[in-house]
Automatic annotation (TrEMBL):
Record's function text: Catalyzes the reaction of cyanate with bicarbonate to produce ammonia and carbon dioxide.
Keywords: Lyase
Classification via CDD domains: Cyanase_C
Organism in which the protein naturally occurs: Pseudonocardia adelaidensis
Similarity-based family: Belongs to the cyanase family.
Domain Cyanate lyase C-terminal: 74-145
Enzyme class: lyase
Active site (UniProt): 87, 90, 113
Name of protein: Cyanate hydratase
Length: 145
């Protein structure tokens, strides 16, 4: 079974069971965003994690096997056009050069790792409407010659 087929089954089972992503992550004892990405096919899960997730979702061994496979990371270009996802592209298009300059000024010549990386999402109440807070937390990797 492909990871995308497994992801479709995960999405349907989550909806059918009335489970939230946060509830699934809590049951697995794994970070929320990582868990969601893994169940959508972007990270391999351990055998134990996959078995636990499938038991919770009522999915079979074929899905558990797929969840353990090494992914081909990335997103279908059609999905990138989704308004929610596109806003991240837009934000990085506008603020990316400034963030690069600020990282170099603060840390030196290097990059933020997306491998040694954590990401989190939170809601912050605001009188003008709740705010979405996304935190990227990546290890600084300096260029070494």
């Amino acid at each position: 079974m492909s990871k995308s087929e497994a992801a479709d089954l995960v999405l349907a089972a989550r909806k059918r069971k009335g489970l939230s992503w946060a509830g699934i992550a809590e049951a697995l004892g794994t970070p929320l965003v990582w868990t969601t990405a893994a169940l959508l096919g972007q990270h391999p899960m351990t055998g134990e994690q996959a078995a636990k997730a499938c038991a919770l979702l009522g999915l079979d061994e074929a899905v558990a096997e797929s969840l353990q496979l090494q992914p081909s990371r990335g997103t279908d270009p059609a999905i990138m056009a989704d308004p929610t996802i596109y806003r991240f592209t837009e934000a990085l298009s506008v603020y990316g050069p400034a963030l690069k300059e600020l990282i170099h000024e603060e840390f030196g010549d290097g990059i933020m790792s997306a491998i040694n990386f954590r990401v989190d999402i939170a809601r912050r109440p605001d009188p003008d409407g709740d705010r979405v807070v996304v935190t990227f937390d990546g290890k600084f990797l300096d260029y070494r010659w």
